[in-house]
Fold UPF0225 protein ACFOWZ_25330.
Amino acid sequence: MCVNNKLCPCGTGQSYVDCCGALHSGARTAATAEQLMRSRYSAFAVSDEDYLLRTWASKHRPASAGIDAGDRWLKLEVLATENGGLLQNEGVVEFRAHYVGGVVHERSRFIRENGQWVYAEAL
């Protein structure tokens, strides 16, 4: 799926290239836990399994991210954030990720690993 000239799937209103695309390509890293969560949602939307695995805490990283290329992701709603800021090392983001056929509602814990935000686990 080519999303380069389209709005980012994460819902910020920015172009994909200037938003999550820059994180997916490695041009930038996530500054906050919420930004990482948004970029991971976008990675599901554009089927970027490498990025998902790269941003998974090493202690919990699976062999596969479980992307189904047939899934069509529709919308992300960030419901709440706890910590996860620029100078913090842990945070929680609660969200709803809508896709054709359902909704994923999760509270996710994020931590810094080697100075970078990574997804640790669902709470």
Q: What stands out?
A: Strands lie at 73-83, 90-99, 102-113, 116-122. The chain has a mean pLDDT of 94. Helices lie at 20-24, 33-45, 49-54.
